[in-house]
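WARN retry 2 of 3 for item q-0093 after timeout on previous attempt; input resubmitted unchanged.
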Amino acid sequence: MELFSKLLTQTDIERRLSVPNQVLHLFPILDGDHRYADLQVKDNSGGLWTFRCIWRDGIYAKPVFSKGWLEFVYAKSLKIYDKVVLYKEKDVEAAVPYRIEVTRKIMRLMGQDIWIEAKFVLLSTGLF
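OK item q-0093 returned
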């Protein structure tokens, strides 16, 4: 089940990933004093990542992925406007309950955006 997708902003690739408020209830956090959860996430190449999802207080109150997120950004060479999609596995017994996909728009053809997985972008540029 797709939880959210978003085009990455400069803040997303330099500091933390902002997560839509609407999906917060799907994460195992925010009970009493606990305002964070460490989420196990698998990428398309089978890599395992741990992202800390926290709920920020104050004027910028919203959930964000903080710890572990920038490591993922650097490892995948993410850029502004890359698209991230987070899924929750339907199988409740899944060892890793979340999956992440990263795609990059490579062109517009006949009025349609053409997106490919970020790993293929790295392969075609010789960076991987």
